[in-house]
Design brief:
The protein is α+β, with helices and mostly antiparallel strands and 126 residues long. The protein has 2 helices and 6 strands. The longest helix is centred in the first third of the chain and has 27 residues.
Length: 126
């Protein structure tokens, strides 16, 4: 009987690990975004920085867009700080928009603030 219990526990552990890895991959990948390059300019309304990535909500002609910026280490590496992402500041975002029709969500590759570029993914061709 202990052998059967061990087999069930092992199977459960493998399934749990697979599901956890799938959830992480689905969230952090680029599969949800289009392949098409996209650029938009708006005014920062709110900011939430942290893990798994930061989010900046911008107003673009009366519509709210959510911009996914990098993880804290990625933002720090390129010099994109919370002090730059203040409410009321204009920001241009270059990246990829959501493939889901009508969803106003962008994965940022590069942002421009005060004519300064912050390239979040310097090795990624865009």
């Amino acid at each position: 009987m202990p052998h059967v219990r061990f087999t069930y526990l092992l199977g459960f552990a493998v399934l749990a690990a697979f599901l956890a890895a799938s959830a992480v991959h689905a969230h952090h990948g680029w599969a949800w975004a289009t392949d098409e390059e996209f650029e938009i300019t708006g005014v920062i309304q709110s900011v939430r920085l942290g893990n798994p990535h930061g989010e900046v909500t911008i107003d673009v002609d009366g519509e709210e867009w959510v911009v996914e910026v990098g993880q804290p280490w990625r933002n720090d590496r390129v010099g994109l700080s919370a002090e730059m992402l203040i409410q009321g500041r204009e920001i241009t975002v270059h990246g990829h928009r959501s493939a889901k029709e009508g969803e106003r969500l962008i994965k940022a590759e590069r942002v421009v603030i005060n004519e300064e570029d912050y390239d979040l993914y310097p090795g990624r061709t865009s």
